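F.,

This is the one I mentioned.
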């Protein structure tokens, strides 16, 4: 067992655990789209970033791939972390604004704008489908192709794969395919219909090292020293 300090609390977890597993064990909520139980960590969506170390040498890492270490200092909801997550959500909205999962994240993290070129794609390259096909279904029928802007998921040479058993596992695990938001206004990327516009928490209770992480919000009594 190892002990690390998470959000000011001493947390003991099994050696070999990731930071995401440690936060889930304690109960600190961390959003993620590419992570799924039963699949190897991939760290593609970057939503699970946490801040480790002490300022000014602290840095952001993906909780799903970073191992828990003895005496490691971790902050899951610092101002830096929340800003990074908001930026990632904006990028996801630029790709797939019709995904209810992404729209729900935008509402939860109070993202009210999307400043990037709108794409209206059908994939965020989270890799869930590729890993499901390879690791769980033992098929390997699909994979990543290309790099950068041309990167996509599909079969080699866009030809029907003899390895595909048409099990549907790839669609079942896709965070974009699983549920579409009825919002489809091409002139705006953010629906906001599910947003809580009047949060009960008091804004001045938030500070750099600890933003509110309660879900649902219960007007937490975190105070600045």
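My design for it:
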């Amino acid at each position: 067992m190892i002990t690390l300090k998470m959000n000011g609390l001493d947390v003991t977890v099994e050696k070999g655990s990731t930071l995401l597993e440690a936060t889930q064990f304690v109960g600190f909520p961390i959003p993620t789209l590419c992570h799924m139980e039963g699949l190897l960590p991939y760290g593609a969506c970057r939503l699970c970033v946490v801040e480790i170390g002490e300022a000014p040498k602290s840095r952001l890492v993906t909780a799903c791939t970073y191992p828990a270490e003895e005496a490691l200092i971790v902050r899951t909801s610092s101002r830096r972390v929340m800003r990074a997550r908001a930026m990632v959500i904006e990028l996801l909205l630029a790709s797939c604004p019709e995904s209810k999962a992404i729209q729900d994240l935008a509402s939860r993290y109070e993202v009210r704008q999307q400043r990037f070129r709108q794409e209206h794609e059908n994939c965020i390259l989270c890799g869930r489908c590729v890993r499901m096909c390879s690791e769980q279904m033992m098929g390997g029928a699909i994979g990543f192709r290309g790099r950068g802007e041309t990167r996509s998921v599909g079969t080699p040479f866009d030809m029907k794969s003899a390895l595909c058993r048409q099990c549907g596992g790839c669609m079942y695990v896709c965070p974009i395919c699983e549920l579409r938001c009825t919002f489809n206004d091409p002139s705006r990327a953010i629906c906001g219909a599910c947003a809580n516009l009047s949060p009960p928490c008091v804004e001045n209770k938030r500070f750099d090292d600890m933003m509110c992480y309660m879900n649902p919000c219960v007007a937490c009594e975190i105070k600045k020293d």
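The domain at 128-173 is CATH 3.30.70.20 (Alpha-Beta Plaits).

Talk soon.
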